[in-house]
Amino acid sequence: MVQLALFPLNTVLFPGGELRLRIFEPRYLSMVRDCTRDNLPFGVCRILHGQEIGEAAVPAAYGTAARIVDFHVDDRGLLGIVTHGERRFHVEEPRLRDTGLLVARVNWIEPRCEPLQPEHALLASLLERMLERAGGLHAKAGPSLYDDAEWVGFRLCELLPLDDDERQHMLQVDNPHQRLQRLLELLPSMA
């Protein structure tokens, strides 16, 4: 187990994804300083109860480690950071520091690099077309990534119009083929 600072948000970050944040609360400014100084990630967990600002919110038990890859100060003097999602984790022992920062002991969930199954090939084709149109971080992904069931599933979870409850559920699914099957089942309702 490892200890992570947690940043509860009204969003779900997936491994390999990008998340841009504006930081202004003292507890999170301190967290960003410590993570940058020590080259550590922090944990992003979806908020189950509470708000992003103010008192500590109740986070989901599953989240993704976020590593800071860039930062800037905007026109209003607020710190902006760019993070990349790394590994999924399960929260075991959360505790609230006197600064209002939530920290927790977490167990890492190992990635599962498994080849795409033939019944999910349609999803890889759909993802490729979506990324060609959307551009961004994964627009020039190599062909080998489109054969990685976990990578395809996570990218589709980011791009498809899922609600946050469904995204959280998809983050918690350990089997990448089950995640893709659920997405395949949801597609007709998105048309």
UniProtKB/TrEMBL annotation:
Membrane-crossing residue ranges in chain numbering: none
Gene3D superfamilies registered for this protein in UniProt: BPP1347 like domain, LON domain-like
SUPFAM superfamilies: PUA domain-like
InterPro entries assigned to the protein according to its UniProt record, in alphabetical order: Lon_prtase_N, Lon_prtase_N_sf, PUA-like_sf
A Pfam family: LON_substr_bdg
Lon N-terminal domain sequence ranges: 1-191
Protein name: LON peptidase substrate-binding domain-containing protein
Originating species: Pseudomarimonas salicorniae
